[in-house]
Specification:
The chain is an alpha+beta fold and about 220 residues long. It is built from 7 helices and 7 strands; from the N terminus they run ααββαβαββααββα. It has one domain. The strands form 2 sheets. The chain has a 5-stranded antiparallel β-sheet with strand order 3-4-5-7-6, sandwiched between helices. A two-stranded antiparallel ribbon has the order 1-2.
Amino acid sequence: MKISNMKAGNLTKNILYAALFCTLFMAAGCGDNNEQARRNQAYLSEGNGEEDAVNTIMAGSKYKITGPMDDLKDAVVGILGDNYWPDTMLTAEELAERTGISENMYEDYLAEYQHTQAGIDMMILIKAREEEVENVENYLSQYREILLRIYEQQPHNESKVFASRIEVIDNYVCYVQLGADITSLNEQDSEKMVAHCQHENERALDIIEKKIFNA
């Protein structure tokens, strides 16, 4: 019975990621030139949905994260300033659709991505239940692999995904994919773009770790 359950779980996971890959691949590769520019995002036409995200309050069309996740985001923004580009929240349902991480796997989360054509910056922080930390990390790792495949023909975006970091800090599983404007590195080799983004990700993770352990 245990083996059957494991096979069923793996099958479900494979179906989920196959569906996600197809959706993102179509978003990245369909349409004419103008449509291509609009659709070259891993996240497409999901609407803002911030009012449905956990631990948020609305102020007009803006949202503010409340609770401990607010402190973590503020710390990162304090370090990166205008180079923190994520601007749109994923709801719990959208997070599950995109990563496979369901609400019963965590106590709290923050998931923000860039909802413009300018880039694919993203930060996902999951305060996982103790028994789910490894599962959450695995789901994020698989999600990152999908993004690498989606953006393999787009050097700037591929560099950002390649430079992304997944790190477990206590029971927080952090996915940071930052870097802001790297267009000035367009004539440089990919190693320089990756190095720049890695530096920004390290800065973010460093302040997140300090905030978590000093809380």
